Amino acid sequence: MEAKEATKSFGGLVAVNKVDMHINEGEVVGLIGPNGAGKTTFFNLITGIYETTSGEINFLGQPIKKSKPYEIAKLGIGRTFQNIRLFKSMTALENVMVGQYCRTHANLLGAILRTKAVRREQQQMKDKAIELLKFVGLEDKKDEIATSLPYGDQRKVEVARALATEPRLLLLDEPAAGMNSREKVEMQQLIKRIQEKGYTVLLIEHDMKLVMGICDRILVLDYGNKIAEGLPAEIQKSKEVIEAYLGKGGAA
Ligand SMILES: Nc1ncnc2c1ncn2[C@@H]1O[C@H](COP(=O)(O)OP(=O)(O)OP(=O)(O)O)[C@@H](O)[C@H]1O
Fold first, then answer.
1. Phi (first) and psi of residue 175, to 5 degrees
2. Which region holds residue 5: left if phi is over 0, alpha if psi is between -120 and 50, else beta?
3. Fewest C-beta atoms under 10 Å: which of 45, 142, 151, 207?
4. Could you identify the atom of ligand 1 that is nearest to the CA of residue 42?
5. Residue closest to 6 by CA, chosen among 173, 201, 224
6. Atom 12 of ligand 1: nearest residue by CA position
């Protein structure tokens, strides 16, 4: 993924201002910044919810245009949301299976007639969804209604559903928000295991311990501008970053 001077304005407000960035395959990159810095808007540009006002974002050599969520998933970008968006009244397993539909081959007629090929594919989907739930540590909760699970588990179901789209790039929007410290540690371990499986991750997260502990590289936005980029240790020491978080007086 590569952004070249990516810009998004809402009327007079420039939410993302000429941001350059790239993510290499296999990296975990953190996107941080104070509230309103433009992080979610940047995610929405990568996922085609918004179109850039100017500049461009390329993914696997193709420019990202305004697209429907399933088109972006098919392109190879999976995401989770700041506010959990699971399908109510569906089990954890069904929620994960929904993520796979952008990769299935069955056409409508085959699905209606429930042909042998369709049944075989559905069984494969189910097996794979169970495997993903096992990967996030929720195999024993597969038949529970997803939205009735504890908060931390719901976030894990969302991660499993995003993985089910077979993403080449996984975007995690505040995966540890609202979690207790035990759940945060589990989420950090899960992201580490996701990276070990070969996935590429871009992560928005306010929990500095988690960000610093897991990211290969960190990018900092403030008022839409990229104010710093570097290794976690470099970001922690950056005067610009400290000022952005604490205000100029706080950095003294
Ligand atoms: N749809 C929109 N219309 C108008 N302004 C918007 C819209 N979306 C975001 N903004 C504005 O753009 C700026 C960046 O917002 P954004 O949500 O991207 O920040 P953020 O870094 O994700 O913040 P947070 O950490 O609080 O989630 C803010 O000033 C916000 O009010």
1. -65, -20
2. left
3. 151
4. 18
5. 224
6. 15
Encoded tokens for 7: 């810009």
Rounded distance from Cα 201 to ligand 1 centre (Å): 22
pLDDT tens digits along 19-37: 999 999 999 999 999 999 9
Cα of 36 to ligand 1 centre, how many Å? 5
| pLDDT tens per residue, range 80-133 | 988 788 888 899 999 999 888 776 666 666 666 677 777 888 888 899 999 999
d(CA 125, CA 99): 10
Question: Token pair for residue 15?
Answer: 């939410």
Report the separation in Å between the CA atom of 221 and the middle of ligand 1, taken as the mean of its atom positions: 12
Domain boundaries, given as residue ranges, for the chain: 24-51+58-76+167-252, 91-165
The single-letter DSSP state of residue 103 is G
Assess whether pLDDT exceeds 80 at residue 235: yes
Rg (CA), the chain: 19
Domain 24-51+58-76+167-252 class in CATH: alpha beta
